[in-house]
Structures are given as structure tokens and as C-alpha cells.
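Continuing from the previous page of notes. For each protein in this section, the sequence appears first, followed by its C-alpha cells. Read the first protein now.
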Amino acid sequence: MSDDERIWAVRELLLNYVRSPSLRHVRDPHSLGRLAQDIVKRIDSGNSIWSKWDGQREVLLKSAVACWIPIEDMREFLNRMPGPRLTTTDVAQRLKAFEDEQHYAYPNEELHSGCLALYEKEKTEGTELPAVVGLLRDHVEREEERLRGEQQERVSAVAGEGSNSARAAPVVRS
């Protein structure tokens, strides 16, 4: 939902709220609370095709992209949050949709076992899932940086060998 659409949605709700000839409800805390809920629902729901997902659920799942957290454990945690019940398919496909967006990365297969081991250790110790997600994100970032460094070293070594062998090879003319 664009900013203009959000503004118009809020404007429409406010106009309906003050339309009554009696404006007593304008100062009523219960009526204001209902209006606030209506505004938040209208803005949060937007035109999303993912109707089971609110802001908090999406933020947590987005942050777990590429962390190799078991889908079933993520689903159980998300179902303890307010909102409609999620299935394993709901969680797996929403995660896949985030991965398919341009600014998210697919999980690195090389980090799978390390992430799962760290996840299981933290789960056994009773660490809350959002904290584990943060820890795994840091772990993934460090490991990907290490892997990039190793790859760069290999490329440099191969490039160095290639230039040395080219110099050492005799030129034969026939």
C-alpha cells in the first residue's frame, strides 16, 4: 500500500468517525480505541495477498531468511503470536517469497550444518527464538565473510600461478 493510499484510508476512517451530528463519541476513549484499531488494521492489511501475516510475524520471518531455522519450530513460535494459525506450508512459502525478493539472499548450503548445530545448542539452553535468529544472522554474516575471503585467496593463488607459469614456459617457434 503506497503512502497516498494509506493517507486516503486513514482520511476515510476519520471522516466516517466525525460524520455523526453528535460529536460526543469524539472524546470517548472506547470509540477512539476502536478507531485506532480500525486504522491500524486498514494500513497493515493493505492489499497483501498474505492475509495471515501481520507486521511482527513478517519482521521475525524476514530476519530469519538464510538462517536455516527449522520451519516447524518457526511455525510453532509464530503461532504463539497474535494472528491466525499458520501451517507449515504458510511459513515455508512466505519464507520462500522473502528469499525470492531481490534484496534477500538464499540460504548458503555450506552453512546449513553449522547453523543447525548452533540453533540446537541455543534451543537446548532455552534461548528465545528471536534471540537465536539474531545470533544466527551474526553467525551467517561472519561465515559468509570468511568464505568470501577464502575464495578470494584461492582466486589470487590461481591467478598468481597462472602468471608465473606463463613467464616460465619457453617459447618454441617452428
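Done with the first. The second protein uses the same format. Note its length before scrolling.
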Amino acid sequence: MIALQVASIAAGMIAAYTIDIQSIMDVLWVILIMFGTLMIALPWKRNKGIIEITGSPAKIDKIYRMLTIILWPVLLILLVAAIWVFMFVNVDVNAFKYQGDSMDFYYKMLPFDVHFFILATLLYNYSYLMIPLCFYYLQHRDKRKALICFILSMNIIFYGATFFSRWSIVHFVLLLLFNYLLMYKSISYKITRKMKVIAMAAALGLFFAFNFITSSRFDDDKFYAETMDPESIIKNPTLYNLFDYLGQSTPSGFALMQMYHGETMHGTMATTALRDYLSLIGFRFYDRDKLADRRTELMGEKYDGGFQSFFSYMEYDFGIVGAIVVILLYYWGIKRSLRNRMSINRYLLLCIWSEIPLLSVFYSSLSATLGLTFIYLPIYLYLNRK
């Protein structure tokens, strides 16, 4: 996780990003960015690998069967939708992704009712549980169930492909790598060796997919080419974007913190996904459009929606003191939870909460993490029941 942050800083330097420190407050902002980055990564460093996952095999198998029943139709819907998008979208890819053209396409062009697609985009979130379950079954040498879990976890990629997202590919790869590093000591050498071969083939395919989406979005994007930093040693817009993608969060987060004047979103950014799920069962908490306008007002159009450092997100959501408290609670919670032997419940929860440091090189995933925790709650209660 720390290596990923170092790679981000290096990429930012290649893309000619700079951090202009001119005052004591600027020094404080840099310290707080480093504090946030380190404190969400360091508790994971003490983990030496999981050697055993405990739990009722019968209950875990029931959860596996329930999730496969939900996720096979989701996979079919998202895969067909992704194919349709790649075949029939004939407008500018960035306009499709960011300017509302995608919604017109989904409602008018998909070969099935759009409500099936909307339902699939909600249920696909259960696919995040299939990655740790894949490694659980590898530990128990059930290769068939592990393979099915892996296939269904690819809903994460297919969901992103429906709107030309590279984020979903990066997300998927990081989660797989994290779970492998967490679990490889408990998996037989024979299986691990086969995994490495499969991983190399999958990595090659994902690399081409990532490169294809990048080329589709930036090869002919004249506006993006004009925004490139002339100081960068890279002049090709598509290649520059790869370094821009990885390296922009820290300098952009620093610039955002320089604009901070004490006003916050009062935790509404971190609880967006949670409140969205609660709204599906009848609760109404807020006007989403008004909060989006408020966020743009505070963060500015240039930085709202872009990649930022984890601490800058927390600062604008909770304030400086609130951000420090949230980060310390995360550090304490993860440090207390890591064991080399743990229950399936703890393992699944840790995998959900690992997204925060894994994705902090891009943005805060606290909202998505709280949302995933909420939809996992019924499973947690079932597995925890005596």
C-alpha cells in the first residue's frame, strides 16, 4: 500500500505536478496528507499473512449459493450491456461518460428493459464478496467454487465497462492482489503456482482492456491535450494520461486543502452510499442534487469529482479534527482486527475495509465501504448466529 503511494508520487513528478510550499500552513497541509496516507496503511503492515479462516462450512456454502443465484443474472446483464456499449456508442467517449449521454443510451439502446440494468448495477456490489470467498475456497482446495467466485467477481469489471471506466479494472486488480498477499501462506504451493500462470494471462488481458479504454477516451481528445502541463517530459496525450491518472491525487489534494476555509459537508460525502441504500427501503434523508451543488461550491468545479488525497476528502467532509479522529479510529480498528487466524466474518469485513487504503491513491472510498458494510450486514448476522 505504501509502495502504491510512492508510485503515485513518482507518476505525479513525471506528469509535472508540483506542490508549491509558501507558508507554514502549506507545510501543515503536507504533514496532514502524509499523516492520513500513513495511518490508513500502517496497521496492515503488521499482518504476516492469514494461515487459517474459521467458520461453519455449511453456512459459508449457503452464502456462496445465495450469492451465485444473485450474481449469475447480474453478470449476464452487465456483460450484454458492456458489449452493447462498445459496439453501438458512436459519440465522444468522454461525453458518454460524463455529460449524460450514457443515460439516454441505457434507456433507448439496451436490448432489454433498463430496469433490469438498474437492478444489476445495485446488486453487482455483492461481487466484492466473491474475491475473498474465492481465496477462502482456494485455501480449502475447492477449485470449482473458487473459479465460480472469481468469474462472478468480474462483475466489477463488467460494471465499469458499461461506462468506459478504467477505475473498475484498477479496483479489481488491487483487491485481487491484496487478498493474495493476505492469504497466500494458507494456500497450497501447487495451487499458488497455477494461480500465478492464470494471473499473468489475466493481467495481460486487463492491460489491453485498460489501454483500449484509455486510447478510446484520449487519443482524439484535443481539449485534454491542451490541458497537459507543458513542463512534462511526456507529450503524447494518451501516455500522459496514464501518469496523470496515477499521480494527480496528492498535488490536487494539496491545492484543495489550500482552499479550505473551515466549511464542511458534515459527513454527507462519507455516507452517500449508505443513505442511497436506505432510500431504497423508504428512508429519505436529503436532496442529492443540492448536496452535489454544495460540494461543487466548496471544492470548486476544477477539483470536485477529480482524484484527491484521502485527507483532503476527509477534511472537507468532517473538518480537520473530525478527519484526524476518523483516521485514528480506522487505524485502531484494523490493528485490533488483524490476526493470522480469524473467522470468515472478520476476513470478509477486513476485505471490505481494505478498500480505503488501496484506493486512497485516488480518492476516499469511505462512502463505498460504508455502503458495502451495510449490504453485508444480513450476511454478517447470519454467519455470526449460533
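What the second structure shows: The longest helix spans residues 57-88. The beta strands are 52-54, 341-343. We return to this in next week's lecture.
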